[in-house]
Amino acid sequence: EVTIQYVDAGEFEVSFVETNENGCSSIDSITTVDVLVNEIPNLPNILGADLAGVCENASATFSTSTKEGYSYNWLVSSPDVISVDNDSSITITPSGFGDKNVSLAISENGCLSDTVTIPYVVEEAPEAPIVTGDNNVCEGSVIELVIAIPRSGSSYCWNLSALSDATTASALCNTVDNDTIGVVLGKVDGVVSVTEQTVLGCLSQNGNHSIVIQEKLGEATLVGLDGSICSSSAFDFFCSQNIFSLRFETLKEKFL
User: Fold this and answer.
1) Is residue 90's pLDDT more than 90?
2) Do residues 126 and 154 make contact, with C-beta atoms less than 8 angstroms apart?
3) Which member of 75, 104, 150, 221 has the greatest number of CB atoms within 10 A?
């Protein structure tokens, strides 16, 4: 028995001579065997936009270069699951969020390449934004709504549709760091909703902020002063708009 190690792929011949117990051999006893040494596949490459990361509860797809005769051996982080396996491409259903890995080795004619391992990230879905700002305001007021804990690089999409007569000059959607908006309120109560989108594109649930509009009072009319009175006289009065806190200078200066 003999072991031969080949360092290159290609076609080779191995010859051996049969020798008897006396050490005698002949040319006729030479045997030649053809040996085909197959090439070990190169280290594969793993491709895919999802190498930049995916959002929690989303799938991740990866692929590699294809070649006839290749077999593809994919491995993923436990307990992630390969939901679709098309040989040269796979789709992974990640379990939870955090740092993940995808690995690949290629075999051809029984020869296995080295394994390549590439990391990627599953980003946790952002929580619903918390909005701070006035809740109980007068009709026509200008208020400022602010995300309590903004995330750097995220954009926020504000929805004022419930406040049908409100206006704003602020960018409502698709603007990075638009975590503060100014709103001119009308007469309609409603709920302002806002969602966060991270740099990776992960979306939060709606964060809601209720606004109650208080109607403006009309012009107040003082009732009960009929004609002139003396400076020391007592009198009763009431206000047509139920406003009971009025400020006067001296009665003499105001009513005589």
Assistant:
1) yes
2) yes
3) 104
